[in-house]
Every structure is written in C-alpha cells, then in structure tokens.
C-alpha cells in the first residue's frame, strides 16, 4: 500500500497544491475582507440582521453566531471553504477508484501480489492525508489573518472533517456507478443537495431576539455541512461535532470496501442503459456524437440557469424591502455590483452566478474531449476522415451551444419570476443584457480550456476547473472581500457587461471577445500538429 500511496501523492501533487493552497488563501482573505467592509460593530450587526431577515442569504452563507468580527468571518467564509473541501475529496476519490478501473490500470495492479482492497485503502489514506494538511493550513491561514488560535483550529478542523465525510461519498459513488463521469456526477449532485439542505435548514431556523444568532432547524442536522457549521467556532466551540463528520467518512469508506468485495472489476451497481438497435440520424456526424455524449450535462446546467433566473427577479423586491432601512446590507450589495439600485443589483449578483454556471457547462464539455482522448475512444473517431481540428471544433461548438442554452434558460426564468411576482418588466431587458454579458465571460473559460487541452493535455481538467474557481472567487466575492481592483478585473465575470441606472455598461466586453477569439484561434491552429496523448 505504501508504494501505491506514494504513486498517488506524486500523481496528484499539483492538483492538491492548487486545491489546498487556494482554499487556505481564501480563508486568509476572509478576515481582511470583513475588517475592510464591516469594520464597525454597527455594520456587522446590520449585516446579520439583514441576513437573518432574508432567508435567501442564509441559503448560501453560514450560521450566524454573533456580531464579533471573528464570528462574522466564519459566517461568511466557512460554507465556501467546506464546499471546496467536499469537491476536492469527491474528485480525488473517483479519480483513484472508478477512473482507474475505466482506464485499465486497476486491473494491472490486481495482477500483482497486492490484495484487491489495497488500491482502495491507499486512496483512503491519500484522502485523509490531504484533509489533515487542508485542516492545518486553513487553521494557520485564519491565525495569520489575525483570528484567535482556538476558534481557528476548530474552523480548520471542521473544513477537514467535511472533507473526510465527502471522501466517503466519493468512494461509494465510485463503487455504485459504472463510469467515472457517472460517479463524479452522483458525487457532485450529492454535495450540492446536502449544501442546499443545510442552507434551507439555516433559513428555517429560529433567530434570537436581537437578530444576531440563529438556531438551526432539524433540517440542518441532515447534512454534514450543518454539523460543521454548528461547531460554532469563536462562540460555543462545539468540538464533539467533529466526531460525526469523521464517523460518516469511516462508515462510507467501510461501505465502499464492502461493495467492492461483491462486484466484478469494471462493473457497477447501476446498470448501463441498453442502447438502441440502430443509431439515429444525429450520430451520422461527429457534431451529433458530441451532442449525444454531453446533452445530459447541458440539461442539468440549464435547469440551474432557469432557477437562477427565477430567483434573480422574484426575490429582487423582497431584498429591496429588507434593505430599505439597513445601510450595511445596501453597502454590501453596492460593493458587489458597483452601486446599482437594489433590484438591478440583485439581478446582477444572481447573473454573475449564472456566468459561473455557463462557464462550468462549457468547461465540462471541453474537458469531455480530454476524457475521450485519455480513454482511447477519440482514436476510432479520428481514424475516419474527420480531421483533428474538426473534432475539437465540434466540442467547442457544442460547448458554445451549451452556454447559450444555460443563459437562455436563465432569461426565461427571469421572465417567469417577473410574471409571478408582478415585478418591473424593465428587469427582463436588464436580465437579457446581463445574461449576454455573462455568456461572453463564459466563452473566455471555454477558450482557455480548449487552449490548455491542446498545449498541456494532462493539465486540462485540473487547470480548467481551477481557472473557473478563481474566476468565481475574484469576480463574485472579490469586491466583498476587498480584493484589489486589478485582481478583481482579472476575472471575466467581473468584466462582463451590466446595467446600472438604466444604462448599459460594456465594461470589458471587447477584451472578452478578443481573448475568446485569440484563444480559440490558437487552440484550433495548434491542434493541427498535436499528437494524441492517451494517458492522463
């Protein structure tokens, strides 16, 4: 097992450094941002009152535990850190279990004297080491930013504990599903669902009389995120809630070992659907094949876009009402949107999230090309008269269609929200402009992923998703966390056109279009001479 563990550590060194160091840096920025944006107790009290009064904010933030600066830092930043830890662990687990079986490497290991469970045990040890390092670095990042040691170590341990829980989720998903794509999809949907369950549980909780603290509802206790948030670092400091997080990971890891012992190598517990006896007309072209392979993912992202659009317009009036007498909340929204009125600012915030969804859709499709290449299924397609440039262009074209569909679904959702809430019809025009702007921003991520795929294929998946995460942090949370303007402006999301005061602000539209054209042009030109790289 030691040899396999060392191999996994060497193979994942770059990816884990990006995940862990990036998460720790975000933790360090939290205290600096809160000190800059909410430096007075009055501002923090107003922020918590607005958050507790508006359930939507609690869906995506933590559990209010007081108005001290360290408590507000944990309220704002801990859910983001836990979400990143959960994704890091599920991807790690699937990469070294189901993906290894798909690519035939697990069979080679099975041919050695190593036992059948040795690779899985090595993966568990690998994930635990990563989570320990993550917990320590996040704790030290909090301390370095000026927070107390006791609460910092509890918050860091909570992030690591969530990672352990979702390491188990990823291990079980790798046993259940027959493909790595299916396992990753199951794991990510599980992470998202449990995150939202925690958010809904917080929103339905019981606030204190002074609106500075919220007691979770029973729904929160159904989610590991809820257990971690209820540790309440810098307030009650409930250390024992780390035990259920570690215990869940241990139970799920044991379940994964049990499932592996009763299934054949390469098989899963969810059977693949039987295909049609004859191929449809769409599969007569390579473009149709790409669409067929990726349409499920596009549908999922489009549903997310529809929900974002509905929330953006249906909740604008509610947020406007809650912020009328709350200057701190108005200041927070103004920081994130550049000073627009509350209704337009609400749409802008939600549509910035839409830009992330559209970018994720495009990156997932572009990364699919790399997966096909690594699995060896691209080679039969390219053995036909289809040129490599055409093959890559098909993925780019379908990804662009995906961006349009996600944004279009959001605009349709905005129209539904306006109709249901009786809102201002002018918001639909603003939502359309903002959606088009975020489509341009998402196209930059598509171009960068295509270029990385051609130039450094083995780095395609980790680097592409890292760029999306950085774009999210800098573009959406950068102004709130007090990042320098030049750093915020590096994110395409922050450069997307918007509407302020009824006027369209183009911002960096022409730069977005120029970077997209240059990136895609370079990727397609370089693809002519690029050899296939079949190993990941």
Given helix and strand content, the structural type is mainly alpha
End-to-end Cα distance, whole Å, is 22 Å
Give a quick account of the main beta sheet: strands, pairing sense, barrel closure.
2 strands, antiparallel
Radius of gyration: 23 Å
Number of helices: 23
Number of strands: 4
The percent range for helix content is over 70%
Q: Beta-strand level of the residues, as a percent range? A: under 5%
Characterize the overall form: globular
User: Regions with pLDDT < 50 over 5+ consecutive residues?
Assistant: none
Spatial arrangement of strands, main beta sheet: 1-2
Task: Give the SSE string.
Answer: HHHHHHHHHHEEHHHHHHHHHHHHEEH
Mean pLDDT: 84
Tags for this entry?
single chain, mainly alpha, 74% helix, two-stranded antiparallel ribbon, 536 residues, two-stranded antiparallel sheet
Task: Describe the protein.
With about 525 residues, the protein is an all-alpha fold. Helix content is about 75%, strand content about 0%. It has a two-stranded antiparallel sheet. The longest helix is centred in the C-terminal third of the chain and has 34 residues. It is globular and about 70 Å long.
Please render the helix and strand layout as text.
Layout: H1 2-11, H2 13-37, H3 41-53, H4 55-60, H5 69-95, H6 98-102, H7 105-110, H8 118-144, H9 149-176, H10 180-203, E1 206-207, E2 214-215, H11 224-229, H12 242-261, H13 286-314, H14 316-323, H15 327-337, H16 342-375, H17 378-382, H18 388-421, H19 426-455, H20 460-481, H21 485-488, H22 492-495, E3 498-500, E4 503-505, H23 509-527
Antiparallel strand pairs: 1-2, 3-4
Helix pairs in contact: 1-8, 2-5, 2-8, 2-20, 3-15, 5-8, 5-9, 5-10, 8-9, 9-10, 9-12, 13-16, 13-18, 14-16, 15-16, 15-20, 16-18, 16-19, 16-20, 18-19, 18-23, 19-20, 19-23
